[in-house]
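Late entry, adenosine-5'-triphosphate complex.
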Amino acid sequence: MARQQGHSPAAGTPTLRKTFARLGPFVKPILPRLFCGFLCALAAGLVALAIPQVLATLVNDVLHPEGKSSAVWYAVALIGGLGFLEALLVFLRRQFVITPAARLETQLRVRFYAHLQQLPVAFHERWGSGQLLSRSMSDLSLLRRWLAFGALMLVVSTVTVIAGLSLMFSASWVLGAIYLAGAIPITIKAFHFRSNYRAASRLSQDQAGDLATAVEESVHGIRVIKAFGRGRHMYDGFNSQAKQLRDTEVSKAKTLAGFILFVVAIPETTLGLGLAAGLWLTAQGDLSVGALVAYFATAMVLAGPVENMGMLMGMTLTTKTALDRHFEVMDTQNTITSPVSPVTPTQRRGELELRNVAFRFPDTAQDATPTLRCINLLVRPGETMALVGMTGTGKSTLLQLVPRLYDATGGQVLIDGIDVRDRDLIELRQDVAVAFEDTILFSSSIRENVLLGAPEYEKEKLDALLDEAIDTAQASFARTLPESLDTVIGEEGLSLSGGQRQRIALARAIAAKPRVLVLDDPLSALDVRTEEAVTQKLRSTLAGTTTLIVAHRPSTVALADRVALLKDGEINDVGTHSELLGRNEHYRYVIASLEDEESNIISLTGGTEA
Ligand SMILES: Nc1ncnc2c1ncn2[C@@H]1O[C@H](COP(=O)(O)OP(=O)(O)OP(=O)(O)O)[C@@H](O)[C@H]1O
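Prediction complete; structure with ligand written out below:
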């Protein structure tokens, strides 16, 4: 299935103002500190502008042949003092803004993570993990840097430039006008730069996200890549993606460099013109030497802010893009939520019923045949029902409707007579535990993995529950690990064999003490004898637990109380294994193909655990 890749800027991209306005509620609590930081930055800029004025006085009065020599020391001390004050104000600005900006970054990141946790499986199937990773990490770091530095400095630089221009105009309108004339082409260039840079920066952020997905997938699938000798192929794919990103970054840098060329070259040219005009004005007696010195010193002070303005504008646009990417995920509506007034069952018997259930994957065409059509099935409390069907008939899909990993698109899934959509989602998922064929274990101890969904019992009871789950899942190999059940297993449990991982995942489902247990071929990596032992033990330990199990082995199917046969997205027949063998030709065909599959596996592996 195609995963969500980077997006090209859509026609409906929000405006700069709209995007930043969305930060309002988060910025509000830290506004006083940001404001203090802003005042410090502004004061630092103005102090920097005051230094040229002192210089003007120094040149005009103090260095005058009749000036007092002590006044020189006074002026030098004043300039030194102003310099120190500027440094202190810069330090204070950082103190004021760094902590709240970092706090805001963390707050948004935690919200983002919580939102990802809530979004339905359908969302996660669409989005590449690298995209989500870059949106939660680098995009939010960018926001912090912009908030702590970019935003303040953009305003302060603008104010400093305006104040500097005013001083220039007050000294001489000719010199002021020359400097201002340089600012006009910069503004025009900035206007064009704005849209070019925004598009390039969006593309590069998306491509960086896709590249992160590629790394993540390669690391995740390193065994497959090595086993199939596809390293070169993966490398080539990654290389071409990395080159695309490089090209985008280069074109982005070129756009920025072109802008900076303007921002730097034009003030330098105007400075040359200013020098000629200033000398002429001084010679005419219309401008004092001190004022001319102050003009150049002011131009020097303004060089930084004028140059920074381009950078900061670029940073602002990149941050805007990062925020759009962030809100794009945050705006994704969670379609699987608890109802406003959830219904709590009076009796938790564990009866599972599917009534006229239909299901179509969200990304399939409207006219395509739904994966599940009219499913009617009743699993009695405490009963073990095996779900059997040819591959791709929708067995896994059906199981996912029970804990609401997907919602049925038609009909109802009921537990104890209550539609699962009317139940509180957390309570529902406490009642229904699942184990899948593709096991995901977390990089923590066996104990923590097994007790992940366990009820909140006190320690002794939890220990007993852990032991029972481990024994039932035939996972006592875990006790022989270096630190027994406290052994930390690698990322996603990769240090365990496939069969061991499956048994730990099964123990996790058992330890959740569910009313309904949904098992999607959770024993496929076990040898036939271990699988039989697990199934027998499951039946005795979980006598009161309703179990719906997708089974691919006739031996497991035979152990179930009843079997439901799925064919073409519908329940074709329900009965005991022997009943169905006796009356249903399609069932005999399915079982025969499962037996063929099983004997092939046994002859290949010699019946040992995978
Ligand atoms: N996320 C998805 N989006 C669209 N179609 C999907 C999605 N997941 C599965 N399908 C399709 O739905 C159908 C049923 O898939 P499902 O995994 O439920 O079959 P299954 O009976 O469990 O197969 P198997 O026995 O091989 O595990 C298949 O045709 C599959 O391609």
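The CA atoms of residues 372 and 398 lie 8 Å apart. Will revisit in the morning.
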